[in-house]
Every structure is written in C-alpha cells, then in structure tokens.
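ok trying again, last paste got cut off:
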Amino acid sequence: MPRTLQRVPASHLFGERAHMVEGGNGLPHPHQKQFLLGPRPVQVGPNWKRVQVGDSLYLSYCAYLAVDRLISCDGEAYFLLGFAVSAVDSELAAGFSRLNAADVEGATAFWAGKWALISKSACITDASGCLGIYYRRFDGEVWLASSPAILGKHLPGATEAPLIGWEVKHGVGIDWIPAPLSTRRGVYKLLPQRRINPLSGKITPQSPIPEFGPGMAEFLTTIMRRWSESALPRKEISLTAGLDTRTVLAAAVRAGIKVPTYTVVNAHTPWADRTLPPKIANKVGLVHRVKTRSPDSRPDEARRWAVARENADQIFIHPLWKHLVEGQLDPLDAAGTRANGNVFELGRCYYWNKFLQAEPPDSRAILSAFFTRCPEPTEIWKDALDLWLSSLSDPVPVNMDWRDRFYHEQRLGSWYSTIQRAADLTRRTIFPPANSLWFICLMLQVPVHERKGGLRQLRLIDEMCPILAALPINPPSLKQRAKRFVKALLRR
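nice, full thing came through this time. structure:
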C-alpha cells in the first residue's frame, strides 16, 4: 500500500465520531461524513482520509465518517461505512468473521441502521439507502460517492456535471428528486436492494435474504439492546404522540434500556406532541427532555449557507437545511445517537390510497396523483419516473407491491436519504431501528387491512409493553374535537 494512504482500524472510529463535527472556527465543513470511491484517491476536504480497497480502487472519506474494516472467514476484505448493529450477532465484526464472502449480503438483511458496505467487487447500502450511494461514469472510469455534488464537481480531471433545474418544493407534490436521477446530469442514485460493482459499474439485485429469522418483537428488542450496548455516546430516543416512536420506545422498554427520551418543539409542533410525550416517558420511568428550536441571528450565517448549499448541491428539499443555518439545530447537536421511528410507515401502506390501481401506471399518471400541473422541467420528471418504472422488473430480495416499492425506493431511498445529508453536518448519529430488510419483509407479510390501520403495529406495542398500548395515539386537541363535533352536526 502506498505510504501516502492511511490504514483503517479494525473497529469503528468512535473516538473521532464523538468529537465536534466542526472546524477549528466552530463551523461545519462541506461534505462531512461523506465518501468517494474510485480508481484514484481524492482529497475532497481538509480532514479527509484515504485507504486502498483493491487494485486501482481507493476509498476517500471524511474523518468524521465511521469506517470499519471487516474480513470474512475466506479472507475477503470489506469496509463498513456508517453505523450498523445486527439482530443475529452481538458483535457485528465477530459475526462477520464467521461468514463466507458468498453469505455476506444475506447476513446484512439482519442489520439495522444507516450504513454502506463496500468491497473490491460490490457495494451495497442499508435497507432503504439511508446512507445513499450515487454513481457516475466519466472517461471510462466508474466513481461512487454518498453525494452527487462530490461526483459532479470533485472528480480529478473530470468536467463538472451540470445541475438540473428541479422545481422541488417542500410539502408540495413529490417533494424530492425522483430516483434514480439526482441533482446533476449523468449522476445517478443506486436504488435500495441493489449492488453495484465499483470497477465495472454493473448494477444487479442483491442476494436473497435468509428464509428464517427472529419475529418482529424479538428483532426490535434485540436491535435496540445492541444499539444501547454500542460505544456511541449519549443515547436518546425520539418521542412524539405518534405510533412509530411509540413502537421504538416499547422495544426499548422490553429490552430493559434506560435512556432519556426527547421531543423537538417549535411554533408548529402539534398539541399532542407537546403534551403527551412527557406522560408517555413517565409511564415507563424514563426521563423526558423537551428541546426547543428557535431561530438565532448568527454572525457566521453566510458561511453556514455556503456549507449547506454545497452539501445540498444547491437544491434544498427540506426546511432542515434552513434550521441548520439559523442555528435551530444547535440545541439538538450534542454528540450522541438518536433512535427514531423512520421506515415504519412503509409497513402501513402509506401510498396505497393515493394509487388505487393494482398495476403500476405510466409516469404521467404518477405525476397527476401528486400535482395539478406537471412540474418543471417536465421531461426530466417524466424521464426519472420512467426509469424508475422500468426498474420494477428487477427481482429484488424483498418482493413488494409497486406502491410499497414507490414508498421504499422514492420516499425513503431519495427523500429521506437526502435529508440525512443535512443531518451529516451535525454531530448526531441517526439510528432508525426499523431500517432492516428482514424487518421490512416482516412488515409487508401482514395482511393489507391490518397494515393500513396500523393494527399490527398496535399489537406489537401491546406485546412488547402493554402499558404503552393503553395510551392514546395522536389524540386530537379540544379545538380539533370541537371542530369535528360541529362538522358532524352540520352533516346531520
């Protein structure tokens, strides 16, 4: 290995992860917690490291991105980027060392978290592509990265890939860039449940997942216990009045975890999310913290906007970027890890009411379901959805109804993973315990009528922690109840 490259230690870089993810001037750096994989090492940022993965294959990565070198029992080297825990092995690295290379992808079905796994022959993402992988071919070379901006502007000797003029507005229609397209022409997003060869760029479906594994309650309980036993500092559980965070909390209680819960409160926080979480936490004997977001006038705002624009690649699809710039996330930004309720909505048929037809429509019909007028640039939107529709023939490991595929590959694989690039500018490590192919498979096996009403999830809470099942889910405020009563009288 060349002397200029640094070896990666055989365990997660928790020491580095625990440091402030800021420069010496107290400001975040562009492309924090990002990586680039290609035929040459590249110094994207001042604190980036480099390691050789294989012949003519180098991993360049931000020092604040946790990297773990894993070796299979037949000697194949892998690099785990981000954070993952396994429902099968108490120590992920030890369990990995007992696997043959051919069995690695199947084993990752039981991993939860936000991660990517790379080797000299294949790269895969976590279950929903939360830690996304983008790819670009230029001058006969294949490059992979967790950010389209890196591929668009920072490849050595490559011309800059032009930005696409997406009209994306938060909360309006499809408020994300439809995968597999990205912010730039010629830069594409790897869809979940696929692998990509880092040398040839060939994309194929991942290996089938094992046929047998833990049930839903056992899986979540084990995952939460392993998360609590990890070396990550300051563990907290996000808590609202909703169903998903209640499920995560129930699993934590069943696992015997004693960590604080927290709720983020601002001017738009619903009444139930303000009042119920402290009562829920008190029922199970946990401390609850309320964290307030409030805009702050900051002298470094111009610098923060520059960093945000670079990480977002000039296209902001969520207010989280604005909150970051204004300092609203600073009270939330203590180093640590937060377990949240993301991914559970996939199990509740989230888009089934929007798409009533059993067979996938064309791109125009999908756009019509979200917009009264087709957004600009019209042809790019159609091209993106046509590309996605053509991918439905891919035989992915977890078989899904096309409406579930839309939520999984678009809402999670594009919208949620893009928002995570904003979270990467903080010191937090986000942990979605439901982000596992095995758990997604279990959720989708539930009959549709039980999924739609969240009935299976309610029974799951009752199984893991009955006292939490007895508390109301998203109860309406007195004002909301009064409005409903008046409407009912008018209808009569």
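cool. The domain at 14-205 is CATH 3.60.20.10 (Glutamine Phosphoribosylpyrophosphate, subunit 1, domain 1). Confidence is low (pLDDT under 50) at residues 1-25.
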